[in-house]
TrEMBL record:
SUPFAM superfamilies: Invasin/intimin cell-adhesion fragments. It holds the Pfam family Big_2. Residues 35-107 form the BIG2 domain. This is BIG2 domain-containing protein. InterPro entries: Big_2, Invasin/intimin_cell_adhesion.
Length: 240
């Protein structure tokens, strides 16, 4: 009888203790499951023009990643994720954090100047020994444009011919000149002649390229037989 009472008291005590512990768990003994935050880059692809900047960052973490550009000649990136467009092309910007990588594909397009209209007389499949190009430019932009003396014919392989030179089309002597400036609101006529010993051919795969400066920056442009125009920031010698 005494053993039965003792067992009853023991089981009752255990039951009470278990009840107390169960009631305490929500307040101090529960375990919490914390899900890891999903880390991602704010932009997976971006298109910007030369000279423009964008800022990349990782979302879902306060830790700082290491940034790297696959092609620094096209786009650079600093330690804060600021991407600067250098020239036309593509580059992959990569952020590395805890051995994981996150990337953004950046496309850099040339900085086209609004308000410029170019037309040109080119000679299809004709070897040009004297007159190379008569280029007309209408300047509806806000700044003046200065064209330098040399022009080139660039073929599909981006090889350049011997230079052709800028002449004064209003002078019957056609003296060689260093540059021509077309003011805002004006139309200018640029007369390029081939004065080298080498002749060259303008065909459907050729572009006539020319240098000019605008708003304290250097540019070069190209126009083909169809009248298509391309403008680039930089030098005429940078044809890569």
């Amino acid at each position: 009888m005494r053993k039965f009472r003792a067992l009853t008291i023991l089981f009752t005590t255990i039951f009470i203790l278990m009840s107390v512990l169960t009631n305490l768990l929500p307040f101090g003994l529960t375990t919490k499951t914390v899900e890891a935050a999903t880390i991602k880059i704010n932009l997976k692809a971006a298109t910007i023009t030369t000279g423009e900047t964008i800022t990349l960052k990782l979302i879902g973490t306060r830790n700082k990643p290491t940034w790297k550009s696959s092609n620094q000649s096209v786009a650079t990136v600093d330690k804060s994720g600021v991407v600067t467009a250098m020239k036309e092309g593509t580059a992959k910007i990569t952020a590395t954090l805890n051995r994981k990588t996150y990337s953004c594909n950046v496309t850099v397009e040339p900085n086209i100047i609004e308000g410029l209209n170019f037309t040109a007389e080119l000679y299809e499949n004709e070897t040009t020994d004297s007159v190379a190009v008569l280029l007309m430019v209408t300047n509806n932009s806000e700044e003046s444009i200065t064209f330098t003396s040399n022009g080139y014919v660039i073929n599909e392989s981006k090889e350049t011919s011997s230079p052709v030179y800028l002449f004064d089309s209003t002078d019957e002597s056609y003296d060689l000149i260093d540059d021509i400036t077309v003011e805002s609101g004006d139309t200018g006529y640029l007369y390029y002649r081939n004065e080298s010993y080498d002749s060259f051919t303008l065909d459907e795969d050729s572009w006539f390229a020319f240098d000019f400066s605008y708003d304290d920056a250097n540019y070069y442009g190209g126009i083909n037989l169809n009248g298509d125009l391309k403008l680039y920031e930089g030098s005429i010698y940078d044809t890569d």
